[in-house]
Write a structure and sequence with these properties.
Radius of gyration: 27 Å
CATH topology of the largest domain: Beta-galactosidase, Chain A, domain 5
Oligomer: single chain
CATH class of the largest domain: Mainly Beta
Distance between the termini: 40 Å
Number of helices: 14
Number of domains: 3
Bound molecules: alpha-D-galactopyranose
Structural class: alpha+beta
Shape: globular
Largest sheet: 10 strands, antiparallel
CATH architecture of the largest domain: Distorted Sandwich
Helix content: 10-25%
Strand content: 25-35%
Length: 735
Amino acid sequence: MAITIQEESKLFSIHTRTTTYQFKADENGYLVHTYYGSRIEDDDLYQQIPFVDRGFSPNPYELGMEDRTYSMDTLMQEYSTYGTGDFRITALRVRNVCGSQAATLKYVDYEVKPGLPVIPGLPAIYGNEGETLIVRLLDECLGLEAYIYYAVLEDKDMIARSVRFVNQSNETVWLEKCASMCLDLPYGAYDFITFYGRHNMERNLSRSPIEHGISEVGSVRGTSSHQYNPYAMIAEKYTTEEMGRCYGFALAYSGDFAMEVEKSQTDSIRFLCGIHPDEFTWRLDPGKNFDTPQVLMSFSGNGFAELSYHFHQTICENIIRGEWKNKKSPVLINNWEATFFDFDKEKLIQIADAAKKLGVSLFVLDDGWFGKRDSDREGLGDWFPNVNKLGGTLDSLGQCIEDKGMKFGLWFEPEAISEESELFRSHPDWAFSIPGRNPALGRSQLILDLSRDDVVDYLTERLREILSSGKISYVKWDMNRSICDKYSRVLPVEQQGEVAHRYVLGLYRILERLTEEFPEILFEGCSGGGGRFDVGMLYYCPQIWCSDNTDAINRLKIQYGTSFCYPPRTMGAHVSESPNQQTGRRSSLKTRAVVAMAGTFGYELDVSRLSNEECAEIQRQVEFVKNYENLLFHGRYYRLSSPEDRFVAWEFASADKSEALVSVVYYDVEGNQPPSYTRVRGVSPDRRYRVYETGWNGENSFSYVLSGKTLEHAGILLPTPTYEGEAFLIRIEAL
Ligand code: GLA
């Protein structure tokens, strides 16, 4: 039993394998947070809350004038509310018909259910395991109920939180801010760790001390964004990969979000996470309900590696669905960086033929195959194959690829529309724009209003028709701009604040229908590379193109940051040409492949123009990846160094600890190079292992036998690089 409840004292404890989360409905009726951290007993930690004079902070009226020790402004709370005496950042702000923004939530009752909750229209952890605690709170004055959900995956140390609001009154209320969770930590010196970036350089790690004041990351771009990822951590100051207390929070949502942290006047820390309150107001009519997105929350007392493992396991087993959940994606070739828009059938076949010889098994036709689309200024929305450019029908091209023994994949950007398109000419009102204003263009395009049912239905139908041909095995679902001018022509004035969230619900609706109808198709998410890399998208697309930046050296940093929450198998990663198109950097074919192997692995260059030597090496790479498929797909992933170091190293270790593969890429070489070592993880201390450097064909240089204990504690000496960016693979095999 993960959830234990002491009925008398109304103490709720959620125990997972190694963590405990605890709160209490106290005598005053408030839901008070008491603990989250390493697993403890059911001791009532409410006793440890100091009730001292808080007369200069508001005290609830019902406690009278005598008791000034109780204040919402200093209390640790499960779900804080605005306007009634808590002046910190708060989880809930509502507006009622009088214009007041205040709320007070008090405990009503609870329910424990076996299994995991379904959140209508939104991604959520699923599976045949788990237990859910639902606590009902009520604002009596508003008649507004809040059901706080805690869905627990005991073995994975994961708690998924969400809130359902139900309007039980006779009047409308407007939700202006409703976070998916609130977490109060009573004390501690913590850092706030977030992942910032930009197009072509996503998910750089930022770590800064939580000082008095408020810090926030988030997005109001309509997508989760390149700029900030909806994953954040709070970690004790000295936390490293292997030690220290740390908390992780991943919002399963692909739109506007906010993650806020505040250190209060009493040095406690509050973390909030949910839909961004800007451009959000939800009209909740009598009898209606509203569900927040779910946030996945975990804790580790043993550093970042273990925390990442909790998220990787949960994403692989309780987020990714369908046929591709346990199936390794095929090694693919994508024509984008090879041709951009400039291709014809002959060119495509040339690339496919060459790729086939290299062992590649999926050919992906990227942008430019539909409507009139010879540049990124036109054609989006016209999802009809351009038979002239394709030299025939899409089916015949698909057939031609299949006849070569390869699968065929296709690029789409369904959410976008070019002004220069048939779709725009017939439905200009389907694109977001504000009456009386010209909408801003992004990559010369506009965005379709997916808050509208007719638009959602049209797109679903259009894609359904193309995918029904049976020739398409893979879809790259792209989305190439931030959304502004969010205004829907079909919603009344007082519901315009719902557009951004309704857009995400519309997107999820299309994806749900298509992935259900075409379970055999592998969907890869994309948004100008990694602009929508989140748990929400992974519920529909088991992998996401990690970045438009394919430079192996930049990718080290991008994939490193991404790996804190997301498993390598979800990261779209390809070998592209050298010099790299985004950075101009030259890197060896080996380095490019070693880096792409920490992701889905594929190629994105004109393979028909490679030298015989390069072709031979690629053949060996593809063979190597196929041989290591199991380890790369199912193995436990460890970061062994960080981009701050001279080299970046990572490791895949098998669950039974019988084998591992360590990858090393040197950022830098220096004269009189100092030696580099790394400790190895995921091995069994009592077994002995053979360690050797491997090339694509097998053993390359040095080989020795060491015990697991030695590997873990003394580590191994790494090969010395002879040029900048040199990569090595080190194989570890149990005897
Ligand atoms: C985006 C994607 C690229 C490519 C282009 C096509 O930038 O991230 O991989 O598909 O669009 O226009």
